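Hey, resending since the last one bounced:
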Amino acid sequence: MAVCVLLLELLGSLSARAAVPPTTINYQGVLRDQNDNPLSGSYDVVLRFMDAAAAGNEILIDQHTAATGNAVTVSGGLFNVAIGSGTVADGSGAGTYTALDAVFRDYGSVWLEVKVGAETLSPRTPIRSSPYALNSTQLAGHPDSYFINTSSSQIQVVDNVALQGNLHTFGLLSAQSTGTAVSAYNSGPSANPALIASSDVGPAGRFTGASAGVEAQCGFANCTGVQGIGTLRGGYFTDWGSSTASLGGGGYGVQSSGTTAGGYFTGPSGVNATLAGGGLGISATGTNVGGYFSDGAPWFAYTQIPYHDLGIYAYGSTAGGQFNAFSTGNYALLAYSSYK
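The structure tokens again:
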């Protein structure tokens, strides 16, 4: 039986910056017999990628044999094989690997085991990087920590436009059991938002919680700016203090509370309304009237001090106004029936 001695050279390749790298590795060597004479002929060669120098686990197999129609031709001892161009199969180890790029994606240390005919050569050969391949930890001169982490636990973006989607739904980002699903910061100009998304087939953004039916959609296709659905309320907003606002919660369209007032609305200069503030249910001022209420018919009420020297001016088909006390039966009517 011949003794085979191989001189191994694994060659990397350089390609244009935007080009797709080749999917094979060039393997060259010299095949000699037990008397150190170079051999010639056609030989079966099986290449195995292993995760250890000895024993270990088989990651991927590349067969170049007569049975598979791609035996290796040796001339004067010299041969050349493109690893990955033979009959490639998943190894017996954990995971599924049928392409070389997946092997080097998941394994930092890989050894090549070569079998020629019935003889397995020893020792295995460690796979080394070509010099420029060491730059694969950088992209455009930046380390991998510079770019977005797209793992299932978190996506974090910092400064300017970090995520941008166009034409179609950008993505579905689900909240995790712990931590934050998406965290975006922008320390630059306000004209450069941290997140931008747009879609012509659905909402530009969709965020879901752990419970079924809890979600928020932004930029929805039906022209809704923000749509929120929750088992307790549709939306909830709070400042660092104790001021809060709930939307679509507890049977109320809007429910709010604050340290100064429950709500405050302002228009042009001198026109404003305060809800539940300063001990008053509603306090309103305006350049024309303090308030105006109408049911769509010619029934209305003005409130202002003074309005034509009247504190309240009201008109209706039954009564101009009704005010009830806490006790049952205690009330007062304005402009009731034929009484003015």
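Helices lie at 100-106.

Sorry for the duplicate.
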